[in-house]
Every structure is written in structure tokens, then in C-alpha cells.
Fold:
Amino acid sequence: MHSTRPPLRPSSCSGLCTLLTLCVALAGSSLACAQESEGAALPLWEAGLFAGALSSPAYPASSQPNRRALVLPFLVYRGEVLRADRNGVGARMVHTDRVEFDIGFSGSLPASSNDVELRQGMPDLGTLIEFGPRVKVKLSEPAPGQRLTLEVPLRAVLEFNGGVRQVGYALEPKLAYEWQERGNWRLKSAFSLVLGDQQLNQYFYAVPAAYATSARPAYSAQAGLIGSRLSLDGSTRLGPDVNLFAFARYDLHEGAANRASPLFAQNQGTSIGLGLTWTLGRSQALAGSDAR
Structure:
């Protein structure tokens, strides 16, 4: 779930871990896109600086945004098994022309309950990291430079908030279409469903009796749909070492399993982000011929 997860005023370490995970994925995306568009072989590793800004709901179905601007270092590594690239951070176990199976990470930004009106007085929600297997299947290649894929990640969700604890599981089957535009823009549109087990939905939507008020009655969440998601992201090269990326996402929570929660504020939400990567160094050694 690219989603912003809400939490805390987390420890700087946990927040930084999440931001670095996001930066690796976004930086890898823009670097790989620009280079693949030229048919160039990719360096085994690249390192540099990432600068970007993001606005996203504080948590799924929240009406209040969570905004961040940041400048951080990034590292992209394209090993045969261990990888940190545009697909995230993890270990690629199987890779053929049609099917990929990997173990990976994803993350989301924190937000404090003090900044969310419906959560006033409740504990902060900590920085979340997702970890687990993903299967990616290429369904078709309608034309050169285009492909339609199905991705099915199942990931344990971990909260970092003065410690580490598991807060449930997330499943996000995704249908994605990637294509290359003139001007070296590489674009990806996707539609996905985001589902959570009861523990994860409790994390977002439960109101324990200790935090219930006349305006916020106690509520116990159930497993099921969190929402559907439509996204578009793209990247392009601005120079030999500078790449631009942008993304937009629309979340629809119609039919969500926990619409009755007093923490469920609205049926839809939007996220946008814009950033640059500046590569300061790269290896002379090249990754395997298949860097996709």
C-alpha cells in the first residue's frame, strides 16, 4: 500500500528507515526509466541525493493530509538476487521473461494523531514497513515498450514506534500497464484493491473503549476491503545525472469493510508527489543484462 500510514511523532530512526525505503524505490524508478529508454546497460549500483515532496491522506479514508518535503541520500543496487531498485527493496528469487517472484519491502510516511481531528487523544500511529512475497506476471506486450502485468503482493505490516510490532497483513492485487512516451517519459498506470486482515483494520479504524467519547463511540474493526486505488506515475531524464519523477493516486473507499468506524472520514482521497534524483556516483561494473 503506497498509502501513507499515519503515525506518531516517531523516533527519527524509524521515520528515516521508511523515507529511505521510499526514496530507493522512487530513485530507482526514475534512474531505470531514463536509462532503459536509451537501451543502455545499467550500472550495478548508483548513489546520490533525492529531493521530493509528497501529500497524501494521513491514513486510508482520512480527510486530513499528511505532507512531507525531504532531501535524503539514496542507493540503487541491481544484484541478481539482492536488489534495491524501482521495484523496491528485497530479494528476487525467480525471474523469467514472464514471471517474477521476490521478497520485498515497501513503506509509508508517518503522521501524528495530534494532527488528525478524529484521532485527537488517541495513540499515534507509527511508521509502517511492509515485508513479504510478491508474484508478478506479464500478461501481454501490446507493442514494443509496452506491457500489461498482474502483481500480487502479500505482506506483513510492521509498526516502528519506540519499538517494533506486527500490526497485521496487507494484500494488494494490482493490474498495471507500462509504456514509453516520446521524450523519454516512462509511464505506469495501475488499478489495485487494498485488503487488510482484522488486525490491520483494527490498527486504522478501531476505537478502544478507553478512547471512546460521545462523538467517537467504541468500534471494533473487521477484516476486508480498505479501498480501491487508481495510480499514474512517470519519470524522465533531465540530464546525464538528473532525473525527474512524479506520481498521482486516487483512492476510493466505497464498499470498504469499515465504513461504520467513527475514524472513517471520507469515501475518497488523493495523493501526489514530485521529486528529483541527482546521481553522484555509479559503478563501472554493469548489472546483468536483465535489469527490468
